[in-house]
Specification:
Layout: H1 3-17, E1 30-36, E2 41-50, E3 53-62, H2 65-78, H3 83-88, H4 91-98, H5 104-120
Antiparallel strand pairs: 1-2, 2-3
């Protein structure tokens, strides 16, 4: 494997072991939850919107390293951006952030948090899972 692949794997493990923005957000503007019944991954996303920007974001959940690291990474991408930009995030943005090739099963894990974001913002677009 390449050095870049190893770096991305380390980044995923770091987000899994030391998740960013994990925990409840009592005064959230938007909340959504979903799970993958096939593997047990679960993600709850909380967004606080102020002046059309994501002022604060938190996630809760459990599951494999890919699903939880992906949720952690997504929160770092969301904080401070306009809601309109959050609504346009797509699978490619998540997959680029993860940086490693994924099987079809792992793809569902990686995209669960994006799906939950779309649910929270009232978007029902397919995220390609």
């Amino acid at each position: 494997m390449s050095a870049a692949y190893d770096l991305y794997q380390e980044q995923i493990l770091d987000h899994y072991k030391h998740p960013r923005n994990k925990g409840p957000l009592p005064d959230a503007t938007y909340n959504a939850h979903d799970s993958n019944p096939l593997c047990g991954d679960e993600v709850v996303l909380h967004l606080k919107v102020d002046a059309s920007r994501v002022a604060e974001v938190r996630f809760e959940g459990q599951g494999c390293a890919i699903s939880q690291a992906s949720a952690s990474m997504l929160t770092t991408m969301l904080k401070g951006i306009p809601v309109a930009d959050a609504q346009t995030l797509d699978r490619e943005a998540i997959l680029k952030k993860l940086g490693i090739p994924l099987s079809a099963v792992r793809l569902k894990c990686a995209l669960l948090s994006l799906h939950v974001l779309k649910l929270a913002l009232g978007k029902t677009s397919d995220v390609g899972t």
